[in-house]
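Entry:
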Amino acid sequence: MKTPKERIGPIIRKLKRRFPEARCSLDYETPLHLLVATILSAQCTDERVNMVTPALFTRYRTAVDFADANPAELEEMIRSTGFYRNKTKSLIGMGRALTERFGGEVPRTMEELTSVPGAGRKTANVVLGNAFGIADGVVVDTHVGRISQRLGLTRHQDATKIERDLMAIVPRREWTLFPHLMIHHGRAICQARKPQCEVCPINDLCPFPGRDAPRPRSKLGARPPRRPSRSS
């Protein structure tokens, strides 16, 4: 088997052919929309977030609107996304930070974005890459972490270390698209519990084709331990 750096180019090319529609699955029109949607997507599906944001963005149009939001009202609007109290605090804090420190605009640097309440490195990568076309890192979510481990692109379990490994082998021009390809692949084919190796477009580039994939030890897509057989 070739090294991760030797395999990454063919992996990306084949996934592009298989998933030409791969893109950010959160609906947004402005950088502020994407920042809000990404904050809401924590521990929630993108589909659910996309159901909530149309009414939310009609009610709250600017950073000032979020800064001045009534917590009870905002909580009710985002309740279905889960952890709505913490997310409400993050959104109001985000609105205040943008208003007080960035003129009401979403900043365009990793350092500035990660200083905004609710915006860690993953969120900042999503916004920078998709809203501004700035490749400053690679988004590592559950799918990206799990499949990168399964493909042998990283041996780490920590998201920061996984991102570092991916940044070393994925061409910078692909940093924004690569996570979308992995997410589409993880949802459609390389699922956590039962990967469909027989129809996988990159099974010839995977260390574990045609058999049950290894179980990641991290919390990123970790699989539950197998039950012992009756004969054991």
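The radius of gyration is 19 Å.
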